[in-house]
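Bench notes, afternoon.
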Amino acid sequence: IAARSPVIRTVAERAASGVPVLGICNGFQILCEAGILPGVLMRNASLRFICREAHLRVETTRSAFTRLYEKGEVIGCPVAHGDGNYRVDGETLARLKGEDRIAFRYTDATGRIGEDTNLNGSVESIAGVLSAGRNVLGMMPHPEDLIEPEQGGSDGRRLFEGLLGAVGVAA
C-alpha cells in the first residue's frame, strides 16, 4: 500500500535523476513494490519474525553507500523483520550479479555463505541490492542500529559516512 502513496512518485523521480535513496527494512520493501528496485520481499522462510545480530559480507564498494568498506569485508548488522526473504527471477538475478549490484549477503563471522547463515531464505543470501544507477540501496538489515560503540559496535556508521561524503556533507 505504501508503494502507492503519492510521495513515491517523487522518490522515483529523484532516484531516476541520480539522487541517493536508501531503503532499510520496510523501506526496501516499498522500493521493490514501487518498482524502483527489482524483486520482492516475501515472508521469511522460517515463517517467524527474526530479531538478532547478523553478519553481512560487503559484495561491492562501487556505490556511495558501500565505498568506505572493503570488498569481502564482514560487518555486523542487526536484523528485525518477518518479511525479509528477497526473491527475484533467474534473469534478474543474473543481471544483478553481472552488473555487480548485490551490495550485501548474509554470512557467518568468517564470510562463509551457507543455508545456516541465510537468516530469512533470501535467494543467494542477498541482504541488499543497488539500482542500475547505483544510487539506490535497499537492504533488510538495520545499519542505523549499529553506528555508535554504545550500541554494541559501529559497523553501520561507514554506510552513512560514505553517503554523506558522496553528497558533500561532512559526517
